[in-house]
Design a protein that fits this description.
The complex is a heterodimer of chains A (314) and B (562).
Chain A: H1 2-28, H2 34-39, H3 45-55, H4 61-73, H5 87-122, H6 127-141, H7 144-158, H8 174-207, H9 211-218, H10 223-235, H11 237-261, H12 266-275, H13 279-307, H14 310-313
Chain B: E1 3-4, H1 23-28, E2 68-73, H2 89-98, E3 103-105, E4 111-113, E5 116-121, E6 127-132, H3 146-158, H4 160-163, E7 169-176, E8 179-184, H5 191-194, H6 205-212, E9 225-231, E10 235-240, E11 254-259, H7 263-271, E12 277-280, H8 283-289, E13 295-299, E14 310-315, H9 325-333, H10 337-344, H11 373-387, E15 391-396, H12 400-415, E16 419-424, H13 427-436, E17 441-446, H14 456-459, H15 480-491, H16 495-512, E18 515-520, E19 524-528, E20 531-532, E21 559-560
Parallel strand pairs in B: 2-11, 2-12, 15-16, 15-17
Antiparallel strand pairs in B: 1-5, 3-4, 5-6, 6-8, 7-8, 9-10, 10-11, 12-19, 13-19, 14-17, 14-18, 20-21
Classes of the chains: A mainly alpha (314), B alpha+beta (562).
Chain lengths: 314, 562
Amino acid sequence: MAKYLLRRLIQLVVVAFIISVLVFLLVHLLPGDPAAQILGANDTAHNRAVLNKQLGLNLPLWHQYIFWLKGVLHGNLGQSYLNHTPVTQVISTGWPIDLELIIISQVIAFAVAIPLALITSRRPNRPVDNISTTATFGMLALPPFVIAPIMVAVFAVGLHWFPATGYIPFTQNPATNLHDMILPSLAITAGSIAVYYRLFRSDLISTLQEDFVTMARSKGLSPRWIMWRHAFRPSSFSLLAAAGVNIGALIAGTFIVEFLFAIPGLGYSLVQAVNQRDYLVVQGITLVVAVAYVVIQFLIDFLFTVVDPRVTRE
Amino acid sequence: MSVTDESGFSRRSFLSRGAVTTGAVALGAAGLAACSSGNSGSSTTSGGSGSTNAKPGFGVGAPQKGGSATVAIIADIDGFYPPANHWDTNGFLYANTVYDPLMAVAADGTVQPYLAKSITPNSTFTQWTLKLRSGIKFSDGSDLNSAVVKANFEALNASLLTGQALKGIAGVDAPDDLTVVYNLSDPRPQFPSGLTTQVGYVFGQAMIDQAAKGGTPTPVGTGPFIYSSWQPNDHFTATRNPNYWRSGLPYLDQITFRPIPDDTQRAATLKTGGVDLILTTDPVSIKEFTGQSQYQLVDSLTGVIGEPTVAFIMLNTEVAPTNDLRIRQALAKGLDVNQILKIFGGGFTRPINGLFLPGSEYYSDTGYPTHDPAGAKELVKQYKAQHGTPTLQLTTVPDPRLEQLVAVIQQMWNQVGFNVTVNAIQQATLITGFIEGKFQAATSYQFGNIDPDLNYVWFSTTTVQPVGSIALNFPRNSDPQIETALLAGRHSSNQSDRVAAYKKLNERLAADLPYLWLEQYPFAAVGDSRLQNFVGFTLPDGTKGYGFNEGIMVPTQMWLNR
């Protein structure tokens, strides 16, 4: 297992390096003088000199990369040229919000998808199964930017159960925070519920037809015992893999949902920065999100080795 | 002639309304109109603190002190420092919270003293002497005096962004603690109107010192509220200034602004009680709240006395094919504006023929081309015989409504013989394209101003530059008759001369066609029933102020019914 993990760790470092190069080049892909492009209307001789010094734009490209990477490793990602907020501050304020959204949405997704799959897989093609399958098809077809306004219209404007927009930090008021996050989380999670449910249901049905399950039944074990003790774990590999792959979609989902619900997470900041051509903020957030994605994939790979030791052997 | 808060002195009575928002376009333009604070009329025309008037946006009953109000705005700003940041409508809302202007616009359109006690010109209007009110302190405890106002001018003048707005000011003197003398390079009878704009908001010396050290200045002003916290793209909160120089004000203990960029979500947040007031420019939202008794709707579409913000298609007169007048005429004639507004205007707006609306003394029949597809086809035919089919790119920003709009326009123009492509690019990129002249035709909005002179830079031949160079005359329309009219309007104190000058400007724009006019750009504020007097503020002498200037409100006299 150690060898496997080491190999994956080396791959992680290589991918992170490639990401850093690509993100670094982002600024250099701008047409014309990068400093002028970054500064926009603030392009004064003074500002340009400060920025050139800050980014080392007068140095050879490789030197600039080393210079930039050194800054990154020291937590210096530059500052917004619109409001002069350090990019690290934008990220440190935003990432807990994204993380919270992803965690809540995943908790909801698993809490809905797993029990539903457990129920329907025992009696496939019955009314409950058919209704669930049809409903999840619908959820799969609706992206967050469609679901969000519908949810707001129904649950916020219509029923007044939740606020339409807004965010209170968890540390400030946990109850309000969770209340505020429910609608955005639901908007993101609908697709996940559908994917998780359908995968897990399908795997459970297959597993329940395996010989070892038939053997268990013939021994007189209860359906509940068979489901939890024998079928659940071998059916969960695809679910786990899907959860890992889904992280990318969830990050994208948070970006859209944060914008719609005016939640000041990384996604909202990134959308605003892109719209306002605040390149250093775009660069910083892109780097952090991309590296975080790779690290999460690594952790999921690690989790696989725990759930299914065959992975390391393969 | 002088403008003073002490009645009995003569007051300028020229039509001076609005100025604000040059829209995002103006803002990005580093220009100074970007610095115009503005206004235009609004559907509300009277009211005030403690009024029993039940007009939307005006207070009913006695003002109540205390409470915290939350206002949803369209977008966040880039900062509070006037020399460095671009204030649009949202920016002026923030500014009116923590700062005060030297001059302000009254409800009758005149420019009146605010932080100033009076302002008086010399006989040739080349020197203006401004007297400050005494005893006013900034939020950091420092005094408002002439030295700070002079330092403000120097910081603003040194800025690329705001320097152009101060171009005609040769220098500023501070002969005593409360007197500021502005020496102008040419006669400017309308000079005080410029002090209602971004360059007229006074900020503390501490901000200048902080900026000089390379820092981001924390707002220090004389305004009704004191800066408390600002998390960009999330909220800006300010608390009551306990030492505010206007006795008994403000009424609210705290005010918070929340940027909510999505129109639908902003409206939904008001409906769910998440905010007390929203600002919107979305016709769908305006229509939705119209006639709903539980909300107070105030819009900028009626009662306009001055120059409104207008939406248009800008044509580059320096690049082919729009450098050919026949093409610009064909584009104007090929455009069915009535049909466009029917589809996209939400049923509120009406076609315009220039910078001014019917009812304004500057309004006239400009001779702007009407919809004439046959005439357009003929002009295209003439052009085609010489240069081939005219190919044109129509650019807009990534807004679903605008993208649908340009698709309809594309169809109209293609029907009269053009080969039109459309594209949507980010607003900042579009603005850069305007500044550098790298566009053919593009949608935009601009020009809301309290006085037509504040739009000088956008039309002047002195601000035309070749394509690729920075120019504030975005369409690069170089018409000597326009320059003559602009200078006549600028230098004259005779209102009838000014009216003639700006009518001439409007007529020349209709002849040159650097802009194809679409509609008056709508701004609206919608408040819940608790929030009172959000457009009913008064000036220090009790004169009714312009409470809704192209979306800009003043929070000083808002209160909450609790």
